[in-house]
Amino acid sequence: MAEYIERYAAITALLAKLDECKHAEFLYGDEIDTILGKDIYYHQYDELNARLGIVIYEPKLPEEDDEGYTSFQLWNFMEIYSKYIGLSKPNIIKPLEIIYELPREEE
After folding, report:
1. Hey, where are the domains in the chain?
2. If you ran DSSP here, which 8-state letter would residue 58 be given?
């Protein structure tokens, strides 16, 4: 019985923490910052160029800040990286971190 009481107390504490969390709305045009797989970014147009038989888009590396983060609009990040992200796929974002700054509430 004591085991069930401990589990109940742990679950109750977890639910209380979840209630404190705020949700955030993401818009596809919002910017995020992340450290990511540069190889994927560099080769994002290889398939298109090969299919067309000419080089339309020259490969380039992403621009980074001093800490190695790259800024993307959310839709562009999803467009480039969505086929490489999934539960059974290797982690291409290291550290596993996407930074999104919440808009400040007007006081």
Report:
1. 22-99
2. -
Neighbouring-strand partners of residue 70: 34
DSSP letter for 5, please: H
Distance of alpha carbon 40 from alpha carbon 67, whole angstroms: 19
Residue 32's SS3 state is strand
Provide the pLDDT for residue 50.
92
Residues contacting residue 51 through CB under 8 Å, at least 6 positions apart: none
Task: Determine contact, residues 39/84, Cβ cutoff 8 Å.
Answer: no
pTM for the predicted model, two decimal places: 0.56
How large is the greatest C-alpha to C-alpha distance in the chain, in angstroms?
Answer: 71
DSSP annotation of 45: T
